[in-house]
TrEMBL record:
Residues 58-70 have a biased composition (Basic residues). Keywords: DNA-binding. Pfam families: Lsr2, Lsr2_DNA-bd. Coiled coil: none annotated. The keyword Cytoplasm does not apply. The lineage of its organism: Bacteria, Bacillati, Actinomycetota, Actinomycetes, Kitasatosporales. It comes from Streptomyces levis. Residues 55-80 are annotated as: Disordered. Residues 1-60 form the Lsr2 dimerization domain. This is Lsr2 family protein. Gene3D superfamilies: E3-binding domain, Lsr2, dimerization domain. InterPro entries: E3-bd_dom_sf, Lsr2-like_dimerization, Lsr2_dim_dom, Lsr2_DNA-bd.
């Protein structure tokens, strides 16, 4: 059985699907936000923030929101699941998160 995984990029503001959607980060009051926007909606965000950016005092660049480390999950490693997935006809990347559908298929088979 062959399986095809399709990635759909969606604008968080409008719900529109587009290959041009990009992920943008910003912060306000010490809270970091991430939003996926088409270029048109990013331009709207930039235009809305521009007067505040131009009149604010720059504090320098941040390295992004602090990441919370999770403890190691119980169960098989991502590499074990990837190896099983490749042997069973799933298309998986060599890095990053293993898609939920692949993990569920792995769990169902074991």
């Amino acid at each position: 059985m062959a399986q095809k995984i399709v990635t759909v990029y969606t604008d968080d503001l409008t719900g529109a699907e587009s290959d041009e959607v990009g992920t943008h980060t910003f912060s306000l009051n010490g809270v970091y936000y991430e939003i996926d926007l088409t270029p048109e909606n990013y331009d709207k965000l930039d235009a809305a923030l521009r007067p505040f950016i131009e009149n604010g005092r720059k504090q320098g660049r941040t390295k992004g929101a602090p990441r919370v480390r999770r403890s190691a999950a119980e169960g098989p490693s991502a590499e074990e699941v990837r190896a099983w997935a490749r042997e069973n006809g799933f298309a998986v990347n060599g890095r990053g998160r293993v898609p939920r559908e692949v993990r569920e298929a792995f769990e169902a088979a074991h």
